[in-house]
Amino acid sequence: MRVLVVEDEQLLADAVATGLRREAMAVDVVYDGEAAQERIDVNDYDVVVLDRDLPLVHGDDVCRGIVDRGLPTRVLMLTASGDVSDRVEGLEIGADDYLPKPFAFSELVARVRALGRRATSPLPPVLERAGIRLDPNRREVFRNGTQIQLAPKEFAVLEVLMRGEGTVVSAEQLLEKAWDENTDPFTNVVRVTVMTLRRKLGEPPVILTVPGAGYRI
């Protein structure tokens, strides 16, 4: 899942981003509305965690831009105000969900995951294919009933491949969905992660390489 965190309180923004990355999400961070608009113009995000009171460009305007362009991106709006009228106004602007500060991080994660499922084609909450069972909410993976421990990036890559439902997923698509914008696009991190993931999943191999195209399960 690709997430953009937009929050002018830099310590909070960085803490949220770090926590979401530990949940196997690819996360970019900006600290004002103008930078958010620039990122949204060039990257495809599943979810934007958007502070409402932003400098340069207000969060409301960032949200309106996403809605007016018809993007599939879902918006979780944050605000320091817990007033019902504030929440209603945010939802009327086009936000998909609303979370007042301060918030429990576990609730933020649950809401981001729920919105991420709505940003893509409907799929069952637990993904199953080729003897693999992947639960995105519990972050658990089983193969033929045996649990497999994966690092966050390995889990993220496997989830993207499972969501492909047998179609070929290119290295570029994996890089976009499982890593943030600071990753060198010419790095071999995708290939190395797939190799490690294959080894952990065991024999016979279930991740197939399609020469010149990518990977599929």
If you had to describe this structure to a student in words, what would you say it looks like?
With 217 residues, this protein is an alpha/beta fold. It has two domains: 2-119, Response regulator (Rossmann fold); 127-216, Arc Repressor Mutant, subunit A (Orthogonal Bundle), CATH 1.10.10.10. Helix content is 42%, strand content 21%. It is built from eight helices and eleven strands. The chain has helices at residues 10-22, 33-42, 59-68, 84-93, 105-119, 152-163, 171-178, 189-201, and strands at residues 2-6, 26-30, 47-51, 74-79, 97-100, 127-129, 132-135, 140-143, 146-148, 208-210, 214-216. The strands form three sheets. A five-stranded parallel beta sheet has the order 2-1-3-4-5, with helices on both faces. Strands 6-7-8-9 form a four-stranded antiparallel beta sheet, covered by helices on one side. Strands 10-11 form a two-stranded antiparallel sheet. β6 and β7 (132-135) form a beta hairpin. α2 (33-42) packs parallel to α3 and α6 packs across α8 (189-201). The mean pLDDT is 89.
Keywords for this entry:
217 residues; alpha/beta; Rossmann fold; Arc Repressor Mutant, subunit A; 2 domains; 5-stranded parallel sheet; 4-stranded antiparallel sheet; 8 helices
How is the topology of this model organized?
Layout: E1 2-6, H1 10-22, E2 26-30, H2 33-42, E3 47-51, H3 59-68, E4 74-79, H4 84-93, E5 97-100, H5 105-119, E6 127-129, E7 132-135, E8 140-143, E9 146-148, H6 152-163, H7 171-178, H8 189-201, E10 208-210, E11 214-216
Parallel strand pairs: 1-2, 1-3, 3-4, 4-5
Antiparallel strand pairs: 6-7, 7-8, 8-9, 10-11
